[in-house]
What we know:
The structure is a homodimer. By secondary structure, chain A is α/β, with parallel strands linked by helices. Chain A has 2 domains: 5-200 and 309-393, Alpha/Beta hydrolase fold, catalytic domain (Rossmann fold, 3-Layer(aba) Sandwich), CATH 3.40.50.1820; 204-300, Rna Polymerase Sigma Factor, Chain: A. The first copy, chain A, contains 10 helices and 12 strands. The first copy, chain A, has helices at residues 5-17, 144-157, 171-182, 201-216, 233-247, 250-256, 276-288, 294-306, 341-353, 377-393; strands spanning 29-32, 38-39, 45-46, 49-56, 66-70, 96-97, 102-103, 108-112, 163-169, 187-193, 327-333, 357-363. In chain A, the strands form 3 sheets. In chain A, strands 1-4-8-5-9-10-11-12 form an 8-stranded mixed beta sheet, with helices on both faces. In chain A, a hairpin with a 5-residue loop joins strand 2 (38-39) and strand 3 (45-46). Chain A is globular and about 60 Å long. Chain A starts with a helix and ends with a helix. The mean pLDDT of chain A is 96. Chains A, B: It is found in: Cytoplasm. Chains A, B: Substrate binds at residues 240, 370. Chains A, B: Keywords: Acyltransferase, Amino-acid biosynthesis, Cytoplasm, Methionine biosynthesis, Transferase. Chains A, B: Its EC number is 2.3.1.31.
Amino acid sequence: MPTTIADTARQDLENAAGNREVYDPSSPVAHFGADEPLLLDAGRALSPFQIAYNTYGTLNEAKSNAVLVCHALTGDHYAASQSPVTGKPGWWSSIIGPGKPIDTDRFFVICSNVIGGCMGSTGPASIDPATGEPYGLDLPVITIRDMVRAQAMLVERLGIDTLFAVIGGSMGGMQVLQWTVSYPDKVFAALPIATGARHSSQNIAFHEVGRQAVMADPDWHGGRYFAVGKRPRKGLAVARMAAHVTYLSEMALHRKFGRNLQDRETLGFGFDADFQIESYLRHQGMTFVDRFDANSYLYMTRAMDYFDIAGDFGGRLANAFLGAKTRFCLVSFSSDWLFPTEENRAVVHALNAAAASVSFVEIETDRGHDAFLLEEPHFFAAIDGFVSSAARARGL
Amino acid sequence: MPTTIADTARQDLENAAGNREVYDPSSPVAHFGADEPLLLDAGRALSPFQIAYNTYGTLNEAKSNAVLVCHALTGDHYAASQSPVTGKPGWWSSIIGPGKPIDTDRFFVICSNVIGGCMGSTGPASIDPATGEPYGLDLPVITIRDMVRAQAMLVERLGIDTLFAVIGGSMGGMQVLQWTVSYPDKVFAALPIATGARHSSQNIAFHEVGRQAVMADPDWHGGRYFAVGKRPRKGLAVARMAAHVTYLSEMALHRKFGRNLQDRETLGFGFDADFQIESYLRHQGMTFVDRFDANSYLYMTRAMDYFDIAGDFGGRLANAFLGAKTRFCLVSFSSDWLFPTEENRAVVHALNAAAASVSFVEIETDRGHDAFLLEEPHFFAAIDGFVSSAARARGL
């Protein structure tokens, strides 16, 4: 309970950001001071900055068993432990843990909140040392490469020279790919899941719809909602609803909801939620705003939109992977229309053209893009097989 | 230029509704008085009400050459003549006209603005005689069947007993199907294009996103924005942007926009429109609000969501078409993911099961749902062939 003016102001900020982790992470935090600035693609430096992270398992003596897990758009570093915000289990606790595909009895797993996020790493809700106020849109636009650059500084801080593996889905998969391009010698094995080497026009379009929804909300105040104790709740909820539809498949929606009515026998002839799918989406929107900062949502979507590895290599994706020694395992999901199999396969083809070691599997499922977060036995088996094989090759 | 208080109030209403056609249609209008109420599925009657419409060509002496054209979600009755609002040619002037697939030298073409619309037919922006104020959300929810019931009254008013053909795409196609179910003896030939016998869960989801965007806009004022001289411009623009993405295909977006930048050589590292697809969508949103009433958008999307022919026939679609004498021609577009070929084919299968006369063609195109509004030679040829053959059978 706030007792001082400073406490009250902090409480306002926490409320505006959506959760208290922004200012008071319950996880370990790595601080980087003035002597260790983060150089950003935007041409500016972020300093000081901090990275909130979690680790699971034990680093071996050779420091050769570290696995970096990269989270998706609205994810966080609570990959395998309970979220302090939602109270839910870690978002990938089905994959990471003792005896699981990423076995914490064997591996030292690191997961950090990305730069630009809102769960303890420096982002738009963080205090700008130049003004004493939250950055808001004064934070430079962050790229996937910036996120990876920050992660590399964290990994170095943890005393690790080479990662055994880097794994992540969706925006996390983009980070995995960027790791293999930015630090090819520091990644033994890479698992980009349900992702692509660039964000498609359609995906940019959906992100732009979400951003416009946030920015159309008068409570957004040009990104300075903190100063007035407001939050663009409605706009952010609409953005989340629009995005959420893209995470599912038509088939999954049909199977799960169809045209089933919500709490009623007949149509209501009004604009309340008649259909279960409407209630479901409204719930998704409303719960999201309780845990996520609206400006962070703008930054995360922008980072994905800007992602285009080939663009950095004269338009030829294979050139990004020339001489790659990393072992790759890509996984796509048959009903994922946000990052369809073709987008994943384009990366496989580029890796083949670069003579890299690559395996690829498309998992048959009707659960759409979200499948990478769900119980998918064939997906788990694919990860398990690849990771075990890579571990043997690594002498683990 | 307004000169009286009444004129000023009217101007405010026109501005709030998005266009002056709402109150002052430049087309013919059929008025239905207290003795001719429109009975609605919501269990209420609409009275008085009016229907704005256009006709092209000449009705023959036998009154056997009438073609009813049904418009889509945000369409209007300017199917083959210049829109008084946008100044653009009629939305289907490529199909309707002298020597065109729907040949106005041979046929008498009728196109009316649907009930619930905002181009001159009674809708939420119309004045509620009970209050003297615009209906707003006091207008009962309108269904596709209500729209068709109103059209049938118009057709009767025009002295036509049986329509030679009914044709329309998307929501227009829903009306075509409903015509053959509600008035099976009054439709000689039916052409439902890019549509389905029910609205899918995914489509309801996207519509709900749009409605929430409109209703989240504080300028919506619970649907009573007229009273305060406001319009939920931003919310409606976001709704239109979200919907517009679903009208295109990933392929079309990639071909047309890809990741091309707008008016710049390099990324802007900000939240202005960097990519052409962003500028395009923003433009679509902004121009839409200049011509469409926000409440009408809620009513139109709801009508589509409620549409489920099988639901009216114990869940068995074929039962809706038992004994059908109408000749059907269905057309789908290969890259349409809003009404994919399977949804169209489900109607074909039901018609087959009901032993109806039906032909079906899937047009190969990468232009998505919008293809039904575009120059698609194979589509035009299919309509031309079917209409000519049906005209011969009809003795025209």
